[in-house]
Design goal:
Elements: E1 4-9, E2 12-17, E3 21-25, E4 32-33, E5 44-49, E6 53-58, E7 66-67, E8 70-71, E9 76-77, E10 83-86, E11 89-94, E12 117-132, H1 135-141, H2 144-164, E13 168-173, E14 176-182, H3 189-213, E15 223-239, E16 242-248, H4 250-265, E17 269-271, H5 273-276, H6 281-284, E18 289-291, E19 300-305, H7 307-318
Parallel strand pairs: 3-4, 15-17
Antiparallel strand pairs: 1-2, 1-11, 3-5, 5-6, 6-9, 7-8, 7-10, 10-11, 12-14, 12-15, 13-14, 15-16, 17-19, 18-19
Length: 319
């Protein structure tokens, strides 16, 4: 059984199968066309990540996309019987049998926790975690429609950049994005690290564009980034009532820890030792520093960079 959408608008009712990408708007070529003048030409999308996890994403609509009665701001994992409202149209999501069911997030909950698993594999991957700095005061200072428009623009542009850098979005977590690059299928760890650095640089370029066009922000729109390479469990992971296709393990935890350390170190990007070792040694030798991170009894050596320093690293690594 595949995931379905139950479409209802006035007297019209129909059932739609969920493709890996469904775009929603007022006119073709959107897959779901809602001919209401208050629906934007490009309004929202439903995008599959992993194996059967569907995220609802507003792509900058004027009048908003509502999930279970609340206006959507950040990409949100859909669960069975979620109701999407777009003006006079409702779409009820019906999850595929055995698919992910999103749990209610708890404050401070660790993203990667010990879970039972089925059909998993171990892979060498490079992880990038990016998180918007000062997101809470930014969100509290803006009208909901302006915040939704800003975040829709950010996630749409960030997704495009990540895909152009050969990355796979593992998940959206509130305002954060977790991206992975596999070192399998003939791809080297070095190329995965370079792709992650290039993605970090280009994501910052998007932030620069946002700051140039949105003047009323209480803080500059910027992101912190953590990058780490290592072995991870990749597969359909979960416990009772909750499964999703994702990467878990110590290497994933460390990518999140490194992003957190970027704030403490006053830098933009923090790279772990299993990543920077694939870059030319003269670049990082003597520039690393030890940090103490949660879950580790011994300090970890990291290389912290500003976005302005990434160009030189990429240029030197290409030689």
């Amino acid at each position: 059984m595949t995931a379905k959408l139950q479409y209802k608008r006035g007297a019209e009712e129909k059932e739609l199968a969920c493709a890996p990408l469904l775009t929603i708007g007022r006119t073709p070529p959107n897959e779901i066309v809602i001919p209401n003048p208050r629906i934007s030409r490009n309004h929202a999308m439903i995008r599959m990540l992993g194996q059967g996890e569907y995220y609802l994403i507003d792509v900058g609509s004027t009048n908003g996309t509502f999930l279970n009665g609340k206006r959507l701001v950040t990409p949100t994992l859909l669960k069975d019987l979620d109701v999407i409202t777009l003006e006079d149209c409702t779409l009820t999501f019906r999850a595929a049998r055995g698919a992910a069911q999103a749990p209610d997030p708890e404050e401070g909950e660790d993203v990667t926790v010990t879970m039972t698993s089925m059909g998993i594999v171990m892979e060498e991957i490079t992880l990038l975690v990016c998180d918007i700095r000062n997101y809470t005061p930014i969100s509290e200072s803006m009208p909901p429609n302006e915040l939704a428009s800003l975040m829709a623009k950010w996630f749409k542009m960030a997704t495009k950049v990540i895909e152009e850098c050969s990355g796979t979005i593992d998940k959206f977590i509130g305002d954060a994005i977790m991206v992975r690059w596999s070192s399998g299928a003939g791809k080297s760890e070095r190329s995965s690290v370079l792709n992650a650095l290039n993605a970090a640089k280009r994501l910052n370029d998007i932030c620069t564009q946002v700051n140039a066009t949105v003047k009323q922000l209480p803080y500059p729109f910027k992101i912190g980034v953590g990058i780490n390479t290592g072995r991870a469990v990749l597969g359909s992971i979960g416990g009772s009532g909750y499964r999703e296709y994702t990467a878990i393990g110590d290497s994933v935890n460390m990518a999140f820890r490194f992003e957190t350390e970027s704030k403490a170190l006053g830098k933009d990007v923090v790279i772990g030792p299993e990543s920077y070792k694939y870059l030319p040694k003269p670049l990082w030798d003597g520039c690393c520093q030890s940090v103490t991170v949660k879950g580790k009894s011994e300090p970890v050596s990291v290389w912290a960079l500003t976005y302005g320093e990434i160009d030189a690293v990429l240029a030197a690594s290409a030689e």
